[in-house]
Amino acid sequence: MFDDEDVEAKIFFGSTEETKDEKSERCSPYDGIAVSIAPVCDSDDTKWALKIAQKAAAHAAKTPLSQRIAWLEDVAKKLEENREAFALMLTKEVAKPITFSRIEVDRCIETVRLTALELSGLHGETIPTDIMPSGRKTLAYFKREPVGVVACITPFNFPLNLVAHKIAPALGAGNTVVLKPTPEAPMTAYMFAKLFITSEYAVKDALSVVYGDAEVGSTLVKSHIPRVISFTGSVPVGHIIMSQAGIKKVSLELGGNAATYIDKSADLETAAARCAFGAFYNSGQVCISLQRIYVHAEIYGEFATLIAEETAKLKVGSPYEDDTFMGPLIDSESKERAKNWIASAQSEGAKVIAGGEEVDGLFPPTVMADVTDEMKIICEEVFAPIVSLVSVPDYETAVEKMNDSPYGLQFSIFTNDLKMTQAFIEDAQCGGVVINDIPTLRFDVQPYGGSKLSGVGREGPKWALEEFTEIKSVVIS
């Protein structure tokens, strides 16, 4: 269905493919070679896509559930058949190492299939209206209905699976969707959307795709047509969306400052290996990348040595090689920002115990030791392959420091103390806790989202279906 020469993304105005004279070129973050082309959309294009979605919404809502389930299953099957083409495009556009690109495609397939499974549970329940003396016997129930039009805005770090987490539940629930994918991966989004639009089970004009940045995004958010805005990205943009959206549902998956505590009872070798993975997977460009490691003072030195050794084992290089763990950051600005994080922390007294220096022009996985609470590197989201070690005297200090953050996405703990585990589940102020593994751990079947500045709402097929539907209450007297 796709070949290596197919590199030009098209606009989808509903089920109709179009292009424009003005186009933008996407170059690989690894070698600078042009890898894809996309039309440059504007406010008028976005408004037209929204009108098409609005017109198609009534038909989409009446589409049989069996057809929508078959639609998702067909997309998953076609994606599986084109697995390598999608993985290669991911690697080309965002320089994700090919092994992890294949994993993202596999997760995307599972996300679509999980959504199809969850659709069978999208129902209401009866309500006993005579439960109180003021009531009386009726037939009362509630049902879930599609909201109508959903606007989806997605980021670069998982440009396939995070699209699936939005459009599969939105379309599966019977809505129409206007998608604005990340400018860094237009072809990946186009290829995925094409699977939906060309499916024999497709709902006509249910999905539109427009490309662009602030102008397109702002037009989507300000429009009265979408009933839900689903956004994954930065906190500053999340603030803008909340101020512009007006009266509509807004689902935001924003930044994080993921942390873990290494207790003296933990298996240190396992913890070090997992922490190296969690900190540097996807070049640290994950909302739940491990950024802060609080280590019990009695085992701090030993753990620091172990994680430095584990970090040194990670291969940094070409994303096209199967054994590469980490490729480049998404752009040169991100690399310079990472360098500045390191320099700032060193000037404040922190030490580099692994990484720190470029490897063939690529920023390496970097471990900072002797980090303190006052340092900027531990207070803000780094979004780079840098992890900081902080010595703490006990569990209580660690959890206090974890919670002392404007973010609350996911935290974890490594311990063999059952009482500490139970306490941590209650004490951690975040959307998700992980025991004896990294906070970067996420299964697509779970609810996913955070507290505080980390966002509003939850993803995961079951919970996204709730975000993209509304409750209608019914009474038959």
Number of domains: 2
Largest sheet, order of strands side by side? 14-15-16-13-12-18-19
Separation of termini? Answer: 55 Å
Strand share of the residues?
Answer: 15-25%
CATH secondary-structure class of the largest domain:
Alpha Beta
The gross shape turns out to be: globular
Number of strands: 22
Do you know the CATH topology of the largest domain?
Aldehyde Dehydrogenase, Chain A, domain 1
Provide a descriptive summary of the structure in words.
The chain is an alpha/beta fold. It folds into two domains: about 270 residues, Aldehyde Dehydrogenase, Chain A, domain 1 (3-Layer(aba) Sandwich); about 190 residues, 3-Layer(aba) Sandwich (Aldehyde Dehydrogenase, Chain A, domain 2), CATH 3.40.309. Helices cover about 40% and strands about 20% of the residues. The protein has 15 helices and 22 strands. Strands 14-15-16-13-12-18-19 form a seven-stranded mixed beta sheet, sandwiched between helices. Helix 3 crosses helix 4, helix 3 packs antiparallel against helix 6 and helix 9 crosses helix 10. The longest helix has 21 residues. It starts with 10 loop residues before the first strand and ends with a strand. The mean pLDDT is about 95.
Short key terms for the protein model shown above:
Aldehyde Dehydrogenase, Chain A, domain 2, Aldehyde Dehydrogenase, Chain A, domain 1, six-stranded mixed beta sheet, seven-stranded mixed beta sheet, 477 residues, single chain, 22 strands, alpha/beta
Give a brief rundown of this model.
By secondary structure, the chain is α/β, with parallel strands linked by helices. The protein is 39% helix and 21% strand. The N and C termini lie far apart (55 Å).
